[in-house]
Amino acid sequence: MAAATNPGITTLNRYFELSNTAGQNQRDLDELLGLFARDAELESARGEIANGEEGLKDFFRTFFARNVELHHVWNTEMTGPDRVRVDWAVAGRAADGHVFALSGHDDATVDQHGHIQTLTVRPD
């Protein structure tokens, strides 16, 4: 049970919770962005790379414009002192109306404050 209170697990769980709502709620988008370190790097499932605060803002604005409804389920575990793995599945609706489902995993590193330093999205 102690692992559930680990800052890395808490941060990644909140990231996935907010991923379901941040496309429709500016406050949730701001909170989601606040989970990342200022110099964080994200690699998307499409291979897009976003660096730093402005890069992440641009990435998520584009991402949520493309994906207007998302519903995630996930399982989070620590794989090292600062490494987190999240196995996930998502069902969603794209901006053009088509529905989709994907599964995969994210690999993340977190800094000493529990902020996401790197996040790599790997679809199955």
Automatic annotation (TrEMBL):
Record domain SnoaL-like: where: 24-114
Domain of life according to the entry: Bacteria
Matches recorded under SUPFAM superfamilies: NTF2-like (SSF54427)
Protein name: SnoaL-like domain-containing protein
Naturally occurring in which organism (per UniProt): Propionibacterium freudenreichii subsp. freudenreichii
Lineage start: Bacteria, Bacillati, Actinomycetota, Actinomycetes, Propionibacteriales
